[in-house]
Amino acid sequence: MRSHLTLIVTFAGLAVLGACLAWLLVAGDAFENLGPVLPWMVGGAIVVAALTAGLMWLAFFSSRRGYDEPYDVNKPNGGRPY
To answer: Would the keyword Membrane be found if you checked this record's keyword annotation (predicted)?
Structure first.
């Protein structure tokens, strides 16, 4: 599982690097204009990544604990483990 994550992060990083290099090739010195907004862009990317990770953790947590199981009226406590 960890090797898959490493592979995904590596390819994502290479894709971002390739996009930046292509942008630099086409636009020339367009990166100079990014100075004032770059911290906001990086901060936004970090917030989105943290929110995504938190929501995925909640989805897997609820699945492992059995909260995603359907309610069964024929079993005690609805068939839920708690």
So the answer is: yes
- What mean pLDDT comes out for the span 48-72? 85
CA angle (39, 42, 43) in 5-degree steps: 80
pLDDT, one tens digit per residue, over 21-46 is 788 778 766 667 777 777 888 899 89
CA-to-CA distance for 44 and 52, rounded, in angstroms?
Answer: 12
Domain ranges of the chain: 1-33, 35-82
Q: Is the pTM of this model over 0.70?
A: no
Question: Residue 62, SS3?
Answer: helix
